[in-house]
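As the next step, I needed to go through one protein, both as residues and as discrete backbone shape codes, included below for the reader:
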Amino acid sequence: MQKKKWFSLLVVTVVSMSVLIGGCADNQAQQTVEKTEITDLSDRKVEIPRQVDRIVALGSGALRQIVYLGAADKVVGVEEIEHRKDNYAPYNLAHQEFRDLPTVGPNHGGDAELIAAQAPDVIFFKGDPGEAKDLQQKTGIPVINLAVGDFPRRDEVLYQSWRLIGKILDREERVEELIQYMEDSIADLKERTVGISDQQKPEVYAGGITHRGGHGIAGAKEPFPPFQFVQAKNVAGELGHKEVTSVMVSREKILDWNPEIIFINSANEKLVKGDLQKHSEYKSLTAIEEDKVYGVLPYSYYHRNFGSILANSYYIGKILYPDRFSDIDPAAKADEIYKEFIGKAVYDQMEEKVGGFKRVKLD
């Protein structure tokens, strides 16, 4: 009889412990799968974990935004472009650890199996909404579609992406700090150049601007944000584009404009020099005859280098209106901007890789 009582007590104890352990496991499972719903930039409703610790960012410009918002430590895999030794994107130079992370496939979207192998909590994706949906179905991982855009529509596109990423990764305070820095910088550039009449402004042109590959002197963007920020007299303004548009300007048009000062992407200096060798008539341009051609940092590398664009604006301002920018050391200003955007000063590395701020001899 005594043995039966002890056996019954043992059974009750074991059952109780099983219920207790099972209950704890259920609670733990509930905590790990706690979810929330967000709406991404393509207006898709996506359910994601409330706490996100592991991420992958795919497509042109996606990883750059993650770095801007101070979340590089959450990245668990990168596209192949981040391992390239010739990668001169400032965010990549500042975060060499990306080159040691596993690759998750080729540029512009990666490979579903390689992505899933890294088990990210969410995937940030800059690209076609249909591709984002397909990637989520293939991996079983929430995919957040982003948009990046350019400076003129930053309120409608770029800042919305930052705020969405900030909400998901708990970086909302950082987002507002960066937006304020961006807006303060643009306001400063405009204030420095207010009140200068058109007669006092030299006519300028920006060429050699990369778009899906390098270009020579004909490669341009219109409007060109650095010129807008310092209220420069841009000869290409007559093209009349409202949104930043990559254009190939005809040789005849450039010769007709005959700009007094030319800025070129230092990374494409060889291509610009090649144009002059093929078409000697470019040498008659006032800017070239008077040795007023200057190199600037690349506008893009796998989408916009927003920090470099601001840094270029200060350099261009100093060249055009030296008295208004007498307190600015362009290299030091670039490093200040890089520290704000990507956490490190990388101007010297950029200068070594692509040339940096300098007068360019084209003849």
About this structure: Residues 16 and 22 are 10 Å apart (CA to CA). The first helix runs from residue 2 to 32. The radius of gyration is 26 Å. The chain has two domains: 36-170, 180-359.
